[in-house]
Automatic annotation (TrEMBL):
Organism name: Gouania willdenowi (Blunt-snouted clingfish)
Keywords linked to the UniProt accession: Cytoplasm, Repressor, Stress response, Translation regulation
Coiled-coil regions, chain positions: none
Primary localisation category: cytoplasm
The gene coding this protein: impact
Name the record gives this protein: RWD domain-containing protein
Quaternary structure and interacting proteins, as annotated: Interacts with GCN1; prevents the interaction of GCN1 with EIF2AK4/GCN2 and inhibits EIF2AK4/GCN2 kinase activity. Interaction with RPL39; this interaction occurs in a GCN1-independent manner. Associates with ribosomes; this interaction occurs in a GCN1-independent manner. Associates with actin; this interaction occurs in a GCN1-independent manner.
GO biological process, one term: regulation of translational initiation
């Protein structure tokens, strides 16, 4: 049995080496080796259109079982890719993997993303998107894709596409109170989750709400505790609000909450908030976590650095 496993592992590694060599030859300087020993790579993808010239960075980890039994672990970095569009692209990559399960998939993924960039560039919606970006000038410094040659993948914060059985029902979604500051409004949403599939279902359900779908940013983070491995499956999404998803996930880690997804919607009001926007995002998340009983210690809550009001007592309104 061990001999068979070794043969399979060796075959997978050889397939990876051949695929990486081919991609390096095809894409040249766009292809970058981040950590060859850990099988971490990155490719910068640009559409061929003249204006606007959209770019995305696809970061990849090739696990030992790829391509025979395991999909690549990946992240897509593109500040213009938000909300429903990101979900649509993720679904198309998942479908490609399932359709070609067991085969090398990276070339197909890269070209699928490139096609998506071309379609986005040609879309009449790009003008509205550009205007939205210009309005949210506080994120303007982060609009360019970072130097892909310096990027690292945090394996705890990557999304693994694995075909899973559909959950019977969408978990109950709770909506928290809004925080408004200088015409920007922040609202949290929360749902219990035990599988990544449930996370996906909840996000799709939220985007069915036109108001939530129209938010400038929908930042989210989740943590799922895996009993068998005694470890956490966790991920986050900035949705264009650079670093907000990571900060939100860090809050969940500090509070040591588990099996929960928190989404914070922000509607930009035209006035720059600077760092205060991160404070409001975390305050929203913390408030709904406390309200729904995921954390009750005010002392633990305060470790995040924000200054929420302490609940005086439980009174009926």
């Amino acid at each position: 049995m061990a001999e068979v496993l070794n043969q399979e592992t060796g075959a997978d590694l050889q397939a990876q080496i051949e695929e990486v060599e081919a991609l390096s030859s095809i894409y040249g300087d766009e292809w970058c080796v981040i950590d060859e020993a850990s099988r971490v790579f990155c490719i910068k993808i640009t559409c061929d259109s003249e204006e606007p010239k959209l770019t995305a960075c696809l970061q990849i980890i090739l696990p030992p079982g790829y391509p025979s039994t395991a999909p690549p672990i990946y992240q897509i970095n593109a500040s213009w890719l938000r909300g429903p569009e990101r979900a649509k692209l993720a679904n198309s990559l998942e479908e490609l993997y399932i359709e070609h399960a067991g085969d090398s998939i990276l070339y197909l993924w890269v070209e699928k993303i490139r096609d998506f960039l071309v379609a986005k560039s040609q879309s009449c919606e790009i003008g509205a998107q550009s205007e939205k970006v210009n309005l949210t000038a506080e994120e303007e410094v982060d609009e360019d894709v970072p130097d892909f040659s310096t990027l690292k993948i945090n394996t705890e914060n990557t999304h693994l596409f694995v075909a899973e059985a559909k959950d019977a029902e969408i978990p109950l979604i709770k909506h928290g109170d809004c925080i408004t500051d200088r015409r920007s409004t922040f609202q949290p949403h929360l749902a219990p989750v035990v599988t990544p599939k449930q996370v996906k279902m909840i996000l799709e359900k939220l985007y069915e709400n036109k108001k939530i779908a129209s938010a400038t940013h929908n930042i989210y983070a989740y943590r799922i505790f895996c009993e068998e491995k005694h470890s956490f499956l966790q991920d986050c999404e900035d949705d264009g609000e650079t670093a907000a998803g990571g900060r939100l996930l860090h809050l969940l880690q500090i509070l040591d909450v588990r099996n929960v997804l928190v989404v914070v919607s922000r509607w930009y009001g035209g006035i720059l908030l600077g760092p205060d926007r991160f404070k409001h995002i975390n305050n929203c998340a913390r408030n709904i976590l406390v309200e729904e009983g995921y954390t009750t210690s005010v002392e633990e809550v305060s470790k995040s650095g924000a200054k929420p009001k302490r609940p005086k007592s439980k009174k009926t309104k």
